[in-house]
Amino acid sequence: MNPRRKKRLTIVISILVGLSIVAGMVLYALSQNIDLFFKPSEIYQGKDDTGIKPINGQRLRIGGLVVPGSVKRDPSSLDVTFELVDMRMPIVFNDTDPVIKVHYDGILPDLFREGQGIVANGMLVNGNFIEASEVLAKHDENYIPKELADDMGEKHVKPSYTKEQIENQQY
Amino acid sequence: MWKWLHPYANPEVSYHFVGKLLPWISKITFVLLFIGIVWALVFAPADYQQGDSFRIFYIHVPTAILSMSIYMAMATAAFCSLVWQFRLADASAAAMAPVGAVITAIALFTGAAWGKPMWGTWWIWDARLTSELVLLFLYLGVIALHNAFEDKNLAGKAAGILSLVGVVNIPIIKYSVEWWNTLHQGATVSKMSAPSMSMNMFWPFVICFLGIAMLVAFVICIRFRTEILSRNGMRPWVRALITEEGVK
Description:
The complex is a heterodimer of chains A (171) and B (248). Chain A is α+β, with helices and mostly antiparallel strands and 171 residues long.
């Protein structure tokens, strides 16, 4: 390789290496802000890497698995409360998991169900209770044909609403 | 290897070589896309919780993967052009940028159209979506720089530096769902272990992916030839070609 090419090669490669180091450090410094949501355990113990705890009245996003049996819907309105625990693979629920209660007054996404991962946007009240203004479903990377899912005992039922519930909607 | 590659550094040789490839690429593209789309939209099973909406997967995932692959190809061409100053590498980078931008836009659009019914929102500023949007802006910047200078070599140099700088974004897109918690789910197919879907869902994806990849290659080849012609407009062989074909 002739010297001019060699020089250009070293310049280009050193720029690239320098840039990746800078980008890596910027991302490392920002990592807590890039996280989209708090996990339920992080509401109690603070963020995993920084230990920063959310305070009452803070607007935040929470992401977790809906605890089976915890979804309570009001028969005459859209009010719903449910509990969240940390997402984990494979999905297991223990009684000792830190639990966060969420209240929401609005239409749930189609993918919402017990055992599903969700992300809620809302305000922290009382240390372990969240008044949500938006609930989004976070599905996992697994896709299963219907027949196969039936065999495995996996079922998904969309949240459905009665006419009365829709008519009582506040906004 | 250099001896074998060397003739292709000549624009005329490359122009005719790509011209010979084109009819083959177009046939393969048509067959793969036709089989892939029909298989994916009609015969592949629906997902147990997403139903038929899941089929957006067959467009969204290939375009999202290709948006990154095209960028890497473009950056590699820019790297070769900066270090070894191959004129043709610049032409190929200029040919790839708009195709990459369109593919990225398709990935973003299909993602939004999928997000609305499934997540409940068109857009969320999580790490995966934001970094993919940055990729679109990088493509647009590279296109703008290629067209910003009268002198094509200067333009290629400026655009090349931007494309190399933007490479930092590629691992961020790829690993965003692992490094941070995001609304976007993790990888289903582009990972080392077996795909997280059954085989009768996976094979139509493979065909769709190859079909869209061939389509991208086809469009890039056409654009590459046009780039060569427009950059060598004063050369005798281009003039001869024009008089031969009777195009003025």
